[in-house]
Amino acid sequence: MFVCNLKLSPKLIFKIFFVIIFLIVMIVAGWSFYKIFNYNNNACMPSSEISNISSDNYTNILKSVHENLDDYVGQKIHFSGYVYRVYDFSENQFVLARNMIISSDKQTVVVGFLCEYKNASEFKDNTWVDITGEIEKGDYHGSIPVIKITRNKSLQ
Fold first, then answer.
1. Residue 109, C-beta contacts closer than 8 angstroms, at least 6 positions apart
2. pTM for the full model?
3. Core-most of 22, 80, 115, 130, by most CB within 10 Å?
4. Whether the predicted pLDDT of 125 surpasses 50
């Protein structure tokens, strides 16, 4: 028979408890930093496949594409929004837009991608459209992403 005599002093218990708590805090902090700094990398990875933009990732992808346009040129995307136009767009341009809440009192702004489509005039303002297109570098008061529409479907 084997007998093991283990003495646990209050100092030893405190050290073990402190080490366990320290390891838990380090694991949580490491996981948090990984999620924070890796979050934008997963927003829309450039690939040859079509990336779907949903309500959950819309603003992250919009921001990422505008900030890193050269990385996304040629990327195919699929998303929906409503047709929004301003006075200085050409006949084949519109913004496929969504409203983004910017304050606690529910003030919104229109955000979206500038789209170009040869038959853009067939879309009425404020109608919802589902499109597939390719990101290109365009010019509208500076360099911005422009979606060249390859496929569309009216949702109204």
1. 99, 100, 102
2. 0.65
3. 115
4. yes
Q: What pLDDT score does 1 carry?
A: 65
The domains of the chain are located at 8-38, 46-154
Phi, psi of 5 (to 5 degrees): -105, 115
Which residues are CB-neighbours of 8 under 8 A, at least 6 positions away?
A: none
Residue with tokens 């990732």: 57
Say which CATH architecture domain 46-154 belongs to.
Beta Barrel (2.40)
pLDDT tens digit string along 77-89?
Answer: 998 999 999 888 8
SS3 13: helix
DSSP string covering 33-77: HHHHHHTGGGT----SSEEEP-TTTHHHHHHHHHHTHHHHTT-EE
First vs last C-alpha separation in the chain = 82
Place of tokens 């040629």: 74
CB 78 within 8 A of CB 131: yes
